Amino acid sequence: MSAGFPYRLIATDLDGTLLRSDESVSRRTREALAAATEAGAAHIVVTGRAVPWTRHILDDLGYEGLAVCGQGAQVYDAGQHRLLTSVTLDRQLAGVALAKIEAEVGPLYLAASRDGLDGEVLVGPGYAVTGALPSIPFTDASDLWTAPLNKIYIQHPELSDDELAEASRRAAGGFVTVAMAGEGIVELLPLGLSKATGLSLAARRLGVKAAETIAFGDMPNDVPMFGWASYGVAMANAHEELKAVADEVTASNEEDGIAVVLERLLAD
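The chain above was modelled as a monomer; its predicted structure follows.
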């Protein structure tokens, strides 16, 4: 452990955690992270967003370290703009999973994230994209399966995100991992994949162990990361499922929750 800071690795989710609602990082949080890295810790971003939807944010932050993207599927070197590892979804299993979920809950609205540094996000009729993220519309569902995918996004006209995630796990949990990553964001991922998978790979590259890691998050998809890290901190705005397994609940992402914890640890 570092003499000036009790952890060697700080893992932060992006949306609802490191980022404020306008996608900026506050000056106070930047300064707290800089002080912790000065004291010997490394900072790693661990996000559900695939690389194409993450890269511009990391570039704006001047972030040059490793990032775990795509819910653990991708380990990305932000300084080199290089994809180091990538796990793709078995398209045949994903097709079976979708059919089983639709048999249970009726037709779904679909989107999909293609693999790679520049993988497009394809969005089908009815699917509502959060924010102004770049995407390509499709009308023929067969277009989904023409190139390797990291994940499929699903939405339902009536069910809540929690209800849809629960029904999807019941119907297709043996074929895919189902993750709830934010409002309107329920994802089908390669079976067994989670943020913990990608974080453990990245940590190994950095020579850091789980016992030396503190993690910050806000959504159920951060639960595996909290399970892997030594200490998990949920934001005040976090989903109840994450708060239930957190070691601590800090202030919200709008109120510098990460900085509040880092400043206290630095002062100790």
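The CA atoms of residues 110 and 154 lie 5 Å apart.
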